[in-house]
Amino acid sequence: MEHLKIIAGTANRSLAEEVAKNLKMKLTPAEIKRFPDGEIYVHILESVRGCDVYVIQPTSPDGNQNLMELLIMVDALKRSSPNKIIAVIPYFGYCRQDRKAKAREPITAKLVAKMIETAGVDRVITFDFHVAQIQGFFDIHSDNLDLIPHIVQHILGRKLKDIVIVAPDVGGASRARTYAKVLHAPIAIIDKRRAEGTRKVIVENIIGDIKGKTCIIIDDIIDTAGTITEAASLLKQKGAKEIYVYATHAVLSGNAIEKIKNAPIREIVFTNTIELPKGKMLPKIKVLSVGHFLAETIRRNYGGMPMGIVYDSMYKKIQETMKK
Ligand code: R5P
């Protein structure tokens, strides 16, 4: 892997380090700093000429800063004669602005995709786009990796009985259905809406049988935590036995941690697509690392090898665990 380089932005350095360690290599050094006026400066500190360079930078909060940093890093690389630049964006910010819901609204996810392309990226690798069609916003190659087998394996490790997979809103129903299918479990869907013009979550009804059951809420993003904490309270109120939550991206804005702390949730599992600062850890929060999988993805991507075989072996392991 002589011509493979991995470089980290400042948004999730620990994940980048884990990836590099798994690949038994060092991160390409770079100086990244802010000028007094807030502008970002990047200097790549070793040659990348002729190399395939993987830039690891989620555009998590502060999303604007992290996106701009990614674009500037790509520009610095582009001017350094690499073979290819691959943006690894474990969390793709602005993903929820994926459609024009009202007149005179932007489709910011598409704008961001265009900005990344224009900066000179040849390929993007992401995890769990909010909706799969965002992949179509890119005209360059994009790999949107799902983490279903990792999360399912973790759920199986809990050895929970009588489970129901819960979608915290109608938009999450198809995601929940996929998990339910793999786990041979029933599903329930929460009827969620937001109060007109606010982020306030209103949940009133549950479709499905959750009484006396262990509920596993699956979501892609936890931002203000309004969705999952209101969902958990409603499930508890309607007779659920225990509530677990699995979510890919821990955005955790505002007082999300306080809400999670007070919610009737037994355990909440995030992945580390977004780095969780120590101050945001609670005993009920667990982090599932995607570092090893991302390293394998990069190794295969660099070598032009397919990912299907990796997924097949993970699903085979799941079947074996389920037979035990
Ligand atoms: C909604 O469509 C998403 O899948 C998440 O459920 C939502 O973005 C979570 O937001 P919050 O934590 O602020 O309720």
Question: Short summary of the structure?
Answer:
The chain has 324 residues and is α/β, with parallel strands linked by helices.
Question: What structural keywords apply?
Answer:
single chain, 324 residues, alpha/beta, Rossmann fold, 7-stranded mixed beta sheet, 5-stranded parallel beta sheet, 9 helices, 14 strands, binds ribose-5-phosphate
Count of helical segments? 9
The pLDDT mean sits at: 96
The low-pLDDT segments are none
| Helix-strand string | EHEEEHEHEEHEHEEEHEHEEHH
The biggest sheet amounts to: 7 strands, mixed
**How many beta-strand runs?**
14
Structural class: alpha/beta
CATH architecture of the largest domain: 3-Layer(aba) Sandwich
Strand content: 25-35%
Main CATH class of the largest domain: Alpha Beta
Give the number of domains: 2
Q: How much helix is in the residues? A: 25-40%
The coarse overall form would be globular
Sequence-ordered SSE layout with sheet pairings:
Blueprint lengths: L3 E5 L4 H10 L7 E5 L5 E5 L7 E5 L6 H16 L5 E6 L18 H12 L3 E5 L13 E5 L2 H10 L5 E5 L5 H11 L3 E8 L6 E7 L6 E9 L3 H12 L4 E9 L5 H7 L4 E5 L13 E4 L2 H13 L4 H16 L1
Parallel strand pairs: 1-4, 4-5, 5-6, 6-7, 8-9, 8-11, 11-12, 12-13, 13-14
Antiparallel strand pairs: 2-3, 9-10
Ribose-5-phosphate binds next to β11 and α6.
